[in-house]
Amino acid sequence: MKRREFLTIPALGAVASSALRDPLSLLRGYDDQNAADTSPRAAWEAHRQRLHPDFETYAPGIEYFILGNGEIQGVLQYMPDRSGPQPMTFLGLTLMDAERFARKWSTFLFHPERGLDRSMATVVVDEKGYTATPESVSRVGWTYPEGIPSVTLEWKAGVCSVREELAVPHKGRFLVRRVFVTNPTERGVMAKVLLALVPSFAIFDDIGINRREGSVEASGFTGLKLYALESNVATSGRYDLTVNTGEVPAGRTREVVFVYQFDRRRPALTRSVLGSLWKETGGYWKKKHEVVTGDAMLDHLYAVSRTGIKAGISTNGKRDSGIWMYNMEWVRDDMMVMLGLLHAGFADEARTMLVKTLERSVGPDGCAIESSRWSGPDLTELDQNGEILYGAWAYLCWTGDRALIRKHWKKISLTADYPLQEVFWDKKSSMLRNKREYWERGGENFGIEDGFELTYQMWVVLGLEKAAAMADLLGEGVAARRWSAAAAKIRHGMLEDPAYRLIENGMLIKRRKRDGVWQQHALPANRSALPPGSPLATNEKPAIDPDTSSAYPIMYGLIDPGSDLARKTLESMEILWNQSWTHGGYSRYNTTSEPDPPAPWPLATVFLARAFTEAGMDEKAWRALRWVYDIHGGKGGAWFERMGPSITPPAPPVCIVGWVWAELNLLFVQHFAGVRPGIDRLQIRPRLLKGMKGLNGEVRVRGAEISLAFRAGTGAQRAAINGKPAEMRDGALVLNFPKKGTRTKIEIDLE
Questions:
Q1: In the beta sheet, which residues pair with residue 261?
Q2: Collapsing DSSP states into helix, strand and coil, what is residue 317?
Q3: How far is C-alpha 588 from the chain's CA centre?
Q4: Least confident of 141-145, 509-513, 645-649, 745-749
Q5: Which residue among 9, 11, 488, 497 is least enclosed by CB atoms within 10 Å?
Q6: What number of CA atoms fall less than 13 Å from residue 652's CA on the CB side?
Q7: CA–CA separation, 343 vs 669, rounded Å?
Q8: Cβ atoms within 10 A of the Cβ of 481, count?
Q9: In contact, 289 and 698? CB cutoff 8 Å
Q10: What is the pLDDT of residue 30?
Q11: SS3 state at 216
Q12: What domains can be seen in the chain, in order of their start residue?
């Protein structure tokens, strides 16, 4: 495929889309434009069948709302921007098995010709049918009835108002769809609610109605059915259910409850069972962490990140690092999500993910997988070993679960020792070397020379320090001393060695070559092998600094966030804001060395929001968070990897990266609320941005409930534990862990 041929594909798709609305348009176009050409080739070109445009994942303005409980995932697509040549379905629902990765076109409700078009409800009022349209919809967004995350749609059906609530219980393979029809007039109206189950033909080949049960059922590679919890249900055709609500009196509301259920052989829900399950679900969410700032934007970002991080994983800890995009797993991503789960209050889910990582994603030599595979030493992502160690330590600190750490100690030890092999550890520099950088540009193909990557040093140092602390706790003194010494040597090389330290001009740099020379440019050996037209393929000297991963030592405290080194490093990131675009956001690194079209990354932008918060650069933190909130993806709380297309082929489609949810949970709980459990003590060190009036929260640490109440701008710093004054030192309150089952109230006034 030549450089821009792929850009013509959407235009072709627009022809197919218009033909769905007007099947004669193709014939008219054929008669007008090809009257003289009656060849088979011309006929085929005129009538080529194409997938519905809903197969695409990324488009300007599109939002996804993701629901999930580990067994089932539901995704509502909302496409308010109708200006494109082939707009996707305005509102559409699809379903997925949380245990199976999918592309969008292989999800359960994707129809090859109609996309997600048949997934929306129709409300009939006085014999006239209505569906949600851009003109009739007044709201699409998240609500939390009884504390349960729900996607809510509000729209008009003639004289009636319609509210739909889509939610999943905390367990079970069900998605519940409630439809409320309200009659605001002074006369009664007759109403019906219609819903179809039109499943993917690629997955289901036995589809039809079950008149005896009043359901629509499908089977194939799995099972699926749709039914309503009403008595007056009619089935028709192959796909359709109709619930007759009867008369809706003036000023009254009628409710219809539909259920999508995986595995049609299992018993269907009843109203009483659903009522009990819903009560349990409310209790489940009530026990998760809660952070409230009073700022509508911040509170939305926290709520959707807490909802999303649960929705994105299966009950066995399996998760796609890029939903509808990669269909693969990375230890790096999983460990960040595991940390996010801990900070959101999902301790059981965090345990599952940590165990899965240690048992399945770390090899017998201690090497960790990336993109669901192992790479050779030159291309191994060494940061992942440090992240596993840090993750295991964080799990221990939050839960106190020594038994799990002891049980998996052999694998933890292998993980710690793996980067210290001679093949990685360069004794002259005291740092770790390889030929792959943090964002996975590897070797001479991408112009990455053998050398020392900042992020690999930082994470291994942090991980080894935490591994040593765990070793001391478990009486493994020899290992503790070995890892502490190694961490100190690598840290010295990274920050202090006069020839090799990863600092230039008073700021952190990304990479040095083996001879100590600062690698400032990526010079690929064969530019023609790179994605055609990409900056890395066309720029004479693609620059690799600055890189947002250089903010890691700041956000995790390996260097003082208030130091000149931190400030200059973060100031250097400003060239990444609007570097080659105008709609805001930070790219992951200098886009002159980007193998894809330049675009901002929500993940990288939240990286910097965390670092800016720690460094006291509040205005920049606010700007980053406002951008994450305002950019499309922010409404649904499902952020794309990059806010723009990739060069396709060979790149996969751009879609949702769950890691962003983890970073936001860390920002709110670790930074804003300042909750930082250690092995022996609990530290509370809040850091509120200027303009935040305060923060209230509920967190659970080692089975104890902790209530947080912070006020900003009081003029003096004070702290109290259960109403008794407590001393703060260097902005932190340090206390013993409260006993399991107790409740502790912590109040802090900030200057």
A1: 174, 225
A2: coil
A3: 16
A4: 645-649
A5: 11
A6: 17
A7: 6
A8: 13
A9: yes
A10: 37
A11: strand
A12: 5-50 (no CATH), 60-284 (2.70.98.40), 290-672 (1.50.10.10), 675-749 (2.60.420.10)
Distance CA(296)–CA(641), nearest Å, equals 24
- Give the residue carrying structure tokens 């002159």: 592
Question: CA nearest 385: which of 403, 358, 410?
Answer: 358
Q: What is the DSSP string of 119-137?
A: GS-EEEETTEEEE--TTTE
In SS3 terms, 492-548 reads as HHHHCCCCCCCEECCEECCEEECCCCECCECCCCCHHHCCCCCHHHHCCCCECCCEH
Average pLDDT over residues 97-111: 96
Helix and strand element counts for the chain (H, E) = 18, 31
Give the DSSP per-residue string, 146-195: GG--EEEEEEEETTEEEEEEEE--SSSSEEEEEEEEE--SSS-EEEEEEE
Mean pLDDT of 343-362: 97
Q: What are phi and psi of 119, to 5 degrees?
A: -90, -10
Q: How far is CA 576 from CA 453, 481, 552, 616, in A?
A: 20, 41, 16, 20
Residue 595 DSSP one-character state: S
Give the contacts of 65 (CB within 8 A, at least 6 positions apart).
75, 76, 78, 140, 142, 151, 166, 636, 637, 638
The percentage of residues in the chain with a pLDDT greater than 70, rounded to a whole number, is 95
pLDDT, position 44: 84
What is the residue type of 265?
R
Task: Determine phi and psi for 410, rounding to 5 degrees.
Answer: -60, -45
Name residues whose C-beta falls within 8 Å of residue 683's C-beta, 6 or more positions apart in sequence: 674, 676, 677, 732, 733, 734
CB 380 within 8 A of CB 436: yes
Number of Cβ within a 10 Å radius of residue 449: 17
Please give the structure tokens belonging to residue 269.
């829900």
Asked if residues 736 and 678 have their Cβ atoms less than 8 Å apart, the reply is: no
Look up residue 582 and give its two tokens.
Answer: 């105008």
**Residue 219 in this model has a pLDDT that exceeds 80:** yes
Give the tokens for residue 566.
């931190």
Instruction: Report percent pLDDT > 90 for the chain.
Output: 88
- For the beta sheet containing 160-167, the strands, ordered from the edge strand earlier in sequence to the opposite edge, are 137-143, 150-157, 160-167, 174-182, 253-262, 223-228, 215-220, 204-210
Residue 469, Cβ density class (10 Å: 0-12 exposed, 13-18 middle, ≥19 buried): buried
Q: Kindly report the pTM of this predicted structure.
A: 0.93
Q: Are 461 and 416 in contact (CB under 8 A)?
A: no
Contacts of residue 306, defined as CB under 8 A and 6 or more positions apart, other chains included, come to 288, 289, 344, 345, 661, 665
CA distance to 413, 419, 442, 595, 665, per residue, from 390 (Å): 13, 14, 25, 31, 17
CA distance 669 to 387: 19
pLDDT at residue 35 above 70?
Answer: no
